[in-house]
Write a structure and sequence with these properties.
The complex is a heterotrimer of chains A (378), B (319) and C (388).
Chain A lengths: L36 E2 L11 E5 L17 H9 L3 H9 L5 H7 L19 H9 L14 E5 L3 H12 L3 E5 L17 H13 L3 E3 L12 E6 L18 E5 L3 H19 L37 H10 L11 H5 L5 E4 L2 E4 L9 H5 L5 E5 L3
Parallel strand pairs in A: 3-4, 3-6, 4-5, 6-7
Antiparallel strand pairs in A: 2-10, 8-9
Helix pairs in contact in A: 1-2, 1-8, 3-4, 4-8, 5-7
Chain B lengths: L28 H13 L3 E5 L3 H5 L5 E2 L5 E3 L5 H14 L6 E7 L1 H5 L2 H10 L4 E6 L36 H7 L4 E5 L4 H13 L6 E6 L3 H4 L6 H10 L6 E4 L4 E4 L8 H6 L13 H26 L12
Parallel strand pairs in B: 1-3, 1-4, 4-5, 5-7, 6-7
Antiparallel strand pairs in B: 6-8, 8-9
Helix pairs in contact in B: 1-7, 3-5
Chain C lengths: L2 E6 H11 L4 E4 L6 H12 L6 E4 L3 H13 L4 E6 H16 L5 E6 L13 H4 L7 E4 L3 H18 L3 E6 L7 E6 L2 H7 L18 E2 L5 H33 L6 E4 L6 E6 L2 H16 L3 E6 L1 E3 L3 H8 L4 E6 L9 H10 L8 E5 L9 H13 L7 E2 L5
Parallel strand pairs in C: 2-3, 2-4, 4-5, 5-7, 6-7, 11-12, 11-14, 14-15, 15-16
Antiparallel strand pairs in C: 1-8, 6-13, 10-12
The chains are: A alpha/beta (378), B alpha/beta (319), C alpha/beta (388).
Chain lengths: 378, 319, 388
């Protein structure tokens, strides 16, 4: 009845492999002013001069102060997901004895907690203790055939032993006295059985601990690490390297800090033994500041006072964590994108740069500072 | 399809009835509002768009940015064309299709008010949504009757800013005894979606009106990344309370008790209020605060009249 | 079986709308149109016509409602007059630009100020460039038929159509009108089939009437004009079909005593009856070879047909019940340009008469004919009946 047939040579340009719409003749147009395709041909990404980048390296302000740089937001997020064993493994990655630190650590992580500005800091230490007390045991690494002697069975020595076993080296700990880790014994805040359990863990990992070894023969070892309860004067503070390339030293008067120092020295030992350049682990960068947190997205929730947490309390407390710098797939960037340019892939946000106009709404609306706005041209 | 597992905290449908490639400015609150509204309404919707920013956003020939049909019409006719479309859909056997009028504040508060009033009074079976960016943004930020007091626009320069309070359109709609009128902003997506769903469910009862505060970064002279944030500040500072009027203007419900943050926090991020914080701006700041306070107090009283208390209003955290 | 009913022009419109199975009626009252929609609202209220009646708050909205409804594929109708039509102006462009086959009855009424409710054609002629088709009527029967033909043509070429009747002289005056049964009208006028993508469909979502750049807008305007040109052919076909079904002849114009006429009076609307009376009288009394051409369809303008019947006459007088301010009567202007391409063309004289419903008598027409016979060239606007 009417002139309403589309010209057959016209295809939507957003269909792959098709020619774009061409209007060479008046009959190429529809009879009425009506659309023929979607706006997908209009790649609005070209408008952008800044682009949002969904980062995966940023950390909360809690991580830096931790002597062992435990990725607190990451394990908190796993607790929220009730993946408790995975959460414990995230801690063990950097802190071998969460049951101990979960009791005696002065918790410098809680001081700068971004949550402080809203109500109270997250009870990080208590959650750590809860995870430590789950008793997750890790496997030693593939044997490397290298032998390491650790002098001193204090907590630093045990921590170093733990990691060197994780990396597959043979470890012998020499204790001059008769008691392992004597300096942590008799503390009110650290029950004897907790300490014993953690020492047992190191043994289970395959480290040999020899007591009453006041003057051990260290000649058969590929490397020697002196674990001390004070800061060594003749060693590099970040790597534990001494004048003798085979000898490393680490320690601190404060037990948790000594663990941090030992961990760093153990890494140097590992690097030395595997022929790598000795390079300390870089300090976590990209700290999420309070100005990057969108406080409106968090309801008030009081801090759990109980330090010996139940599972429910631990999950509640982990939910209080802002998960700074750690994307927990909350979907804010997706829900607030005016341009529909955040796609959801494997339950994670992905920016569609073909269409993202770079408005930055996702950057402000990300509650936890995961998304950075970077200039399109540097 | 298997059940989709997601950790997203949002009870917001996945369906995008909205294509990327649309031509809204960066950070457009009106574009986001439409995206969320169509998530709520689905695709069995015919949209009527009068002259407004969305005339541009929906795309230029030959492209279309929505997965629902859009009939573009003249500035003052959103409500009546939507009613005509609804009538046409009814008589051609498509009764379930929702007719949505989607207009800016100019097309609603000003030039379209007559047609809106007529449609509201007759009880036309449409949803009328106004995305209110508080001035004629599409033509370059001229004052409308939705412009708040003290605001700069290109027709109310900073030396003589908008002298009058913003027109209270919700009250005008309540006076028409519409079955449903609600305020919403894209900063509270679940609230907005719930209201559109409610309006959809009330099909057949008359005109349902939804007033959306849609931040306009270029028009409000603010950074585009503050778009959603500014809408949230508007709610939290009581500048734009979230509430519903039901039962033909009888029942008032405040949906969320704002934190009551200082109004300055909302005003300071917007260049259109910059002169309020300069010497001589105090009286305009005062006027703005007075306007906000009066509206809020009246609203609380009306809520109390309906519910007898304000204790039933959710506080603290709302999305 | 059809039957004769003595009815006013307004009610003739209502009956035709009823028989056309219109689905959406939207109107706002204005004298002298109001009776059209009053009767229609009764017909709808009694359930005789399955339609939705929208009682809008302005003519602008009346046309907007029709536009919305027509955009969904519903058959829509409205009626108005003078100020109402002027208020609709914006939406008249919209209806035509969106290619919506709305039919509207416009009762010709003079524009204010000063206030007047009586007839002249300035309201409808002011809308000539909106893209609407326009039919002018002399009798209530023509009014009735024009609505039915109107839908048939409009829906084929996707253009809106305005049928025009004079205030009071037709709108409020009763004449016998042959009203047809629903079956007969149904035989001629099938339900509206809007075609593939003229109408809103949620299953095929598109944007209608959207923003179009200068690179594309022009072609859409060309298509409106092309549709008008096509409408000439569709009108021809439908006039023929109409005659077959209903037995009444219609054409772009009506020729009265034209066979051997040297002189032709061109006119339109109810004025034509006076002109016919005077012409018949002069033929009879003075043997003057004179005839009448009553214009009916003026958009699209039937150039070819007009040239064919007027090209070889000696003199032509155009009587306008309108004034295109700053120029001349509109029918006069248009006829002159229609004849201009002819190598040998008759002189055309323009007369203005009956503005604002001023009474026109056959004697006035005889005066005009006398003047035409004496006149050799057109030097000024000739105002008949104004107190000069």
């Amino acid at each position: 009845m009417a002139d309403n047939k589309l010209p057959p040579s016209v295809y939507p340009p957003d269909e792959e492999g098709k020619e774009p719409l061409v209007f060479k003749h008046v009959d190429d147009y529809p009879e009425v002013p009506v659309t023929l395709t979607t706006m997908k041909f209009n790649k609005t990404g070209a408008w952008r001069n800044v682009k949002p980048v969904i980062t995966d390296h940023k950390v909360g302000p809690c991580v830096g102060p931790c002597p062992m740089w435990v990725l607190i937001p990451k394990f908190m997020d796993l607790v929220v997901q009730e993946r408790l064993e995975d959460a414990a493994r995230v801690i063990l990655e950097r802190n071998p004895f969460p049951s101990i630190t979960g009791r005696i650590c002065p918790a410098p992580c809680e001081k700068p907690c971004n949550r402080r500005k809203l109500d109270e800091p997250v009870a990080i230490r208590s959650v750590e203790r809860f995870l430590g007390d789950l008793g997750v045991i890790e496997e030693p690494g593939e044997p490397t055939g290298k032998k390491v002697a650790i002098v001193g069975s204090n907590i630093a020595g045990l921590a170093a032993a733990y990691y060197l076993r994780r990396w597959g080296h043979e470890v012998t700990v020499f204790e001059s006295g008769s008691v392992i880790c004597e300096h942590l014994r008799g503390r009110e805040d650290l029950p004897e059985e907790v300490l014993e359990r953690e020492i047992e863990k190191v043994k289970t990992m395959g480290a040999e601990i020899i007591t009453n070894a006041a003057d051990p023969d260290l000649s058969g070892f590929d490397a020697v690490l002196y674990a001390m309860t004070e800061v060594p004067k003749d060693a590099d503070k970040t790597t534990g390297v001494t004048d003798d390339p085979r000898i490393f030293k680490a320690g601190h008067t404060e037990p948790v800090r000594s663990m941090g120092a030992a961990k760093k020295a153990a890494l140097s030992v590992h690097q030395y033994l595997t022929g790598q350049e000795i390079k300390p682990e870089p300090r976590p960068s990209g700290v999420v500041t309070p100005s990057q947190v969108n406080y409106f997205h968090f309801p008030l929730a009081p801090r759990t006072k109980n330090e010996d947490m139940s599972k429910e309390e631990a999950i509640y407390e982990a939910n209080r964590c802002f998960s700074c710098g750690n994307c927990n797939s909350c979907g804010n960037c997706w829900v607030y994108c005016p341009d529909n340019a955040i796609q959801w892939v494997n339950d994670l946000p992905v920016v569609n740069y073909d269409y993202c106009k770079g408005c930055g709404v996702c950057v402000v609306e990300c509650p936890r500072g995961v998304i950075d706005l970077e200039p399109e041209w540097k | 399809m298997s059940e989709k597992k997601t950790r997203r905290i949002w009870d917001v449908p996945d369906d995008e009835n909205f294509y990327y490639g649309h031509t809204a400015c960066q950070g457009c609150g009106g574009a986001l509002a439409m995206r969320l509204a169509l998530k709520a309404l689905g695709t069995d919707v015919a949209v009527t768009i009068p002259a407004c920013c969305w005339t541009i956003i929906a795309g230029g020939f030959p492209g279309h940015a929505l997965k629902v049909p859009v009939f573009h019409t003249a500035f003052e006719t959103a409500a009546i064309v939507a009613a005509g479309i609804k009538g046409g859909l009814e008589v051609t056997g498509r009764k379930s299709t929702i007719s949505l009028a989607w207009a800016g504040d100019g097309g609603t508060f000003d030039i379209g008010l007559q047609a809106l009033s007529g449609a509201a009074e007759r009880g036309e079976d449409i949803i009328y949504a106004v995305y209110d960016n508080e001035a004629y943004m599409n033509t370059g930020i001229q004052r409308s009757s939705a412009t708040p007091p003290g605001a700069w626009t290109t027709t109310t320069p900073a030396k003589r800013p908008n002298p009058r309070p913003k027109k209270n359109l919700m009250e005008i709609m309540a006076a028409h005894k519409v079955p449903y009128a609600a305020t919403a902003t894209p900063a509270y997506p679940e609230d907005l979606i719930r209201k559109f769903r409610k309006a959809k469910e009330m099909a057949g009862q008359g005109l349902r009106f939804i007033h959306i505060l849609a931040p306009c970064p270029p028009g409000w002279k603010m950074a585009s990344d503050y778009s959603v944030h500014s809408a949230r500040l508007a709610v939290e500072s009581r500048v734009f309370p979230l509430y519903e009027i039901e039962d033909g203007g009888r029942k008032y419900t405040i949906n969320y008790w704002p934190k009551g943050i200082p109004i300055e926090e909302y005003l300071k991020i917007q260049g259109r209020f910059r002169h309020l914080f300069k010497p001589g701006g105090e009286k305009w700041l005062e006027a703005f605060k007075e306007f906000v306070e009066e509206n809020w107090n009246q609203l609380v009283e009306k809520h109390k009249l309906t519910h007898g208390t304000t204790d039933n209003i959710p506080r603290g955290y709302y999305k | 079986m059809s039957f004769k009913k003595v009815t006013t022009g307004n009610h003739a419109v209502s009956y035709a709308v009823w028989s056309s199975r219109v689905q959406i009626i939207s109107a706002y009252p204005i004298t002298p149109q109001t009776q059209i929609v009053e009767l229609l609202s009764e017909i709808v209220a009694e359930g005789k016509l399955q339609a939705k009646f929208i009682t809008v708050e302005s003519e602008h909205s009346a046309m907007a409602a029709c536009i919305g409804a027509s955009a969904t594929g519903a058959r829509a109708f409205t009626a108005t007059s003078a100020q109402g039509l002027a208020l609709m102006h914006e939406m008249l462009h919209w209806a035509a630009g969106a290619r919506l086959p709305i039919v509207m009855a416009n009762v010709n009424r003079a524009m204010a100020p000063p206030w007047s409710v009586w007839t002249d054609q300035n309201d409808s002629l002011a809308q000539l460039v909106t893209g609407w088709m326009q039919i002018y009527n002399e009798s209530n029967q023509e009014v009735y038929d024009s609505v039915i033909i109107g839908y048939k043509v409009a829906e084929q070429v996707h253009l809106p159509l305005m049928t025009v009747l004079d205030a009071f002289i037709l709108s409020h005056t009763s004449e016998p009108v042959e009203i047809h049964t629903q079956e007969e009208v149904d035989e001629y006028l099938p339900p509206y089939d809007p075609g593939e993508y003229y109408t809103i469909k949620t299953e095929d979502p598109r944007g209608y009437g959207l923003l179009t750049m200068p690179s594309d807008y022009y072609e859409f305007r060309y298509k409106v004009q092309r549709a008008h040109e096509r409408a000439i052919e569709v009108f021809k076909k439908e006039f023929k079909n109409f005659e077959e079904v209903f037995g009444r002849k219609h054409w772009f114009f009506e020729e009265f005593m034209m066979d051997d006429a040297d002189y032709v009076i061109v006119t339109s609307g109810s004025l034509s009856s006076d002109v016919k009376y005077a012409v018949a009288k002069l033929r009879k009394e003075k043997g003057l070879k004179i005839g009448v051409l009553k214009m009916r369809v003026v958009r699209p303008y039937p150039f070819e047909e007009v040239r064919k019947v007027l090209g070889d006459r000696k003199k032509i007088a155009v009587i306008d019940r309108n004034i295109g301010f700053g120029y001349h009567g509109v029918f006069y202007e248009e006829l002159k340009s229609a004849l201009y391409p002819l190598e040998k063309r008759p002189p055309v004289f323009g007369y203005i008469i009956g503005i604002g419903g001023r009474d026109v008598t056959p004697a006035d027409i005889e005066d005009i004919i006398d003047d035409m016979l004496k006149r050799d060239e057109m030097t000024e606007i000739i105002w008949k009946g104004v107190r000069l």
